[in-house]
Design brief:
alpha+beta; Arc Repressor Mutant, subunit A; 2 domains; two-stranded antiparallel ribbon; 8 helices; 51% helix
């Protein structure tokens, strides 16, 4: 009979080793998609080969004024299922308004100042805009490097695009 405490410690160690191994994978160039198109799930196949049982978000995108953003994060599926999902409610809630999504899209496409944002019909009045900006900054979807200027921080670019992509499916 296996000691439950020992078994739990082994699981924890295995996850820690997998996380360290995954950190090394992040620095490894990714393979391009097959030219012949035979393997629709080429990225998934490679993920399963390198780190079975994990969930991954990855992407590479050019953002106006910010340049190239490359990002990848991997988490073991069991770890995600054991987390308290209510802890991310505020972060997700910040995206749950059409004006805030519009603001994020505008900022990502180069509209970065309060004055320029107010020129857009989709953001509402000055008071509404400032309300939405406060929520987006508080949730980490926007930063304000200087007064009246906003940007989506690089570590949030790909997760934001993935969230929008997942909602379109």
């Amino acid at each position: 009979m296996v000691d439950p405490e020992l078994e739990a410690r082994i699981v924890t160690l295995e996850r820690a080793v997998a996380a360290l191994q995954q950190r090394d994978v992040r620095d490894t160039p990714t393979a391009p998609a097959p030219v012949d198109g035979d393997d629709t799930f080429w990225a998934l196949t490679e993920l399963e080969r390198r780190s079975p049982g994990t969930v991954q978000m990855t992407g590479s995108v050019e953002v106006p004024e910010a340049g190239a953003v490359r990002w990848q994060v991997t988490q073991h599926g069991d770890t995600l299922l054991q987390q308290d999902w209510t802890e991310v409610a505020t972060t997700l809630d910040a995206l749950a308004h059409p004006a805030r999504l519009s603001i994020l899209r505008l900022v990502m496409t180069g509209v970065r100042t309060t004055a320029d944002l107010l020129q857009q019909e989709t953001v509402g009045t000055t008071g509404q805009l400032h309300h939405h900006l406060r929520q987006l900054v508080a949730a980490g979807w926007l930063t304000s490097p200087r007064r009246g200027h906003y940007e989506v921080p690089a570590p949030r670019v790909v997760p934001l695009l993935i969230t929008v992509l997942s909602a379109t499916r």
